[in-house]
Specification:
Blueprint: H1 10-14, H2 19-23, E1 36-38, H3 49-61, H4 73-83, E2 90-93, H5 96-107, E3 114-119, H6 124-131, E4 136-140, E5 159-164, H7 176-185, E6 190-194, E7 215-220, E8 233-236, H8 239-247, H9 256-266, H10 269-296, E9 303-304, E10 311-315, H11 319-331, E11 334-338, E12 348-352, H12 356-367
Bound molecules: pyridoxal-5'-phosphate.
């Protein structure tokens, strides 16, 4: 007989777990057996076989009985060289989501902190803050889903502003000019900027770290570098805040596999050039999809937002239409992300740019909706 752990009394469990966590829901991932997967903003192109073999050969050389380097100093140095930044200003972890969760835990633990979260944006931010019972308020995007710095007048000292640029699920960006204004105007506030999709725009905020002590950037290998299945992310900031982050984070975050993948990637310029070509192709495809949708969608009452990422956001005329469209796409073996439960996202679906064949299938299915 299979052992089934005894269920604790619900009231007893409730005496340990905070009510907001008991009420909450874990992040859910659609798991339908669908071929055209356009729901998670992944790269549609897997790594070349030769790169995978290089990683495997490296892995075989590692001592699996030994812990990996506690803070991945070798990878830190390789990445520092690529980014032309000091290694101490980099903190690596298994994906950017856990790093964001830990940064939010660290920065919102004091009652005095006023946290503002770009809305709509990546739901993880607000979910973490709810779990931590950290007070937070939305910084709403405009009706046409742009950032509006004028709405931030209330940003006082000891505030934390959390945003993504480019933003998910909208695809909009905060201009560098606006960010510089905020960093200068509110030197006593922290700005946590998630740059998960920064490779898809020409503008990065990296150079601002030299001038502004109140900026923290978070990045990932999951999107443009096409390594979502490996789990590598990093924080860029002055080492003083990273030292504090270290205290609330366990060591050995990058195992031998993550480190071997990062090493292979960061020491192979031809691979990095290949990812640039892939990215250029995805951007081109996104423009094509946008143009075609702009022809197909208006007569159906569907609006498509401009995007600076590898995905597009569609707003259907109603929630019902969004659900019908999701079902219609599933019938056509296509999975997109229905994000309509999010704040101000009624009727919205997010579609990742796939490979040429997937995009053609998606557009054909849209035309027949
Ligand atoms: C804005 C944003 N930040 C962070 C992440 C998490 O990425 P990672 O795979 O590095 O955890 C995502 C994933 O979709 C994202 O869209």
């Amino acid at each position: 007989m299979i052992l089934k752990p005894k269920k604790p009394e619900p009231t007893w469990l409730a005496s340990f777990i905070k009510p907001n966590i008991l009420k909450g829901k874990a992040y859910s991932i659609q798991k339908e057996a669908i071929t055209v997967k356009l729901d998670q903003n992944e790269s549609p192109y897997d790594w070349p076989q030769a790169m995978k073999e290089r990683v495997l050969a490296d892995l075989v050389q590692q001592k699996w009985n030994r812990y990996p380097d506690g803070y991945s100093t070798e990878i830190q140095e390789l990445l520092a060289k690529k980014l032309n930044i000091t290694p101490e200003s980099i903190f690596l972890g298994p994906g950017s989501n856990i790093l964001i969760a830990n940064l939010l835990l660290l920065l919102t633990a004091r009652k005095e902190t006023r946290t503002l979260v770009a809305t709509p944006s990546f739901p993880l931010y607000a979910e973490c803050l709810r779990n931590y019972e950290a007070e937070h308020a939305p910084w709403y995007l405009t009706d046409d889903f742009e950032y509006d710095v004028a709405k931030l007048k209330s940003l006082g000292p000891f505030s934390l502003l959390v945003l993504a640029s480019p933003n998910n699920p909208v695809g909009n960006v905060l201009s560098k000019k606006d960010l510089v204004f905020l960093l200068k105007e509110y030197p006593q506030s922290y700005f946590l900027v998630d740059e998960a999709y920064y490779e898809f725009v020409d503008e990065s905020f990296l150079d601002l770290l030299g001038e502004h002590a109140n900026l923290i950037l978070v990045r990932t290998f999951s999107k443009s570098l096409g390594a979502a299945g490996v789990r590598i992310g990093y924080v860029l900031a002055h080492e003083s805040i990273l030292c504090e982050l270290k205290k609330i984070t366990v060591p050995y975050l990058l195992n031998h596999f993550c480190a071997a993948v990062a090493r292979a990637c960061l020491t192979d310029d031809s691979f990095l050039n290949w990812t640039k070509e892939v990215r250029a192709g995805i951007i081109l495809e996104k423009e094509k999809i946008f143009k075609r949708l702009a022809e197909i969608c208006p007569s159906k009452g569907i609006f498509v937002f401009r995007s600076w990422t590898n995905f597009l956001l569609l707003r259907c005329a109603s929630q019902e239409q969004a659900e019908n469209l999701t079902r219609h796409l599933v019938k056509n073996d296509i999975l997109v992300r229905n994000v309509s439960a999010g704040p101000n996202l009624t009727g919205c679906l997010r579609v990742t740019v796939g490979n040429l064949e997937e995009n053609a299938k998606f557009l054909a299915a849209m035309a027949h909706f």
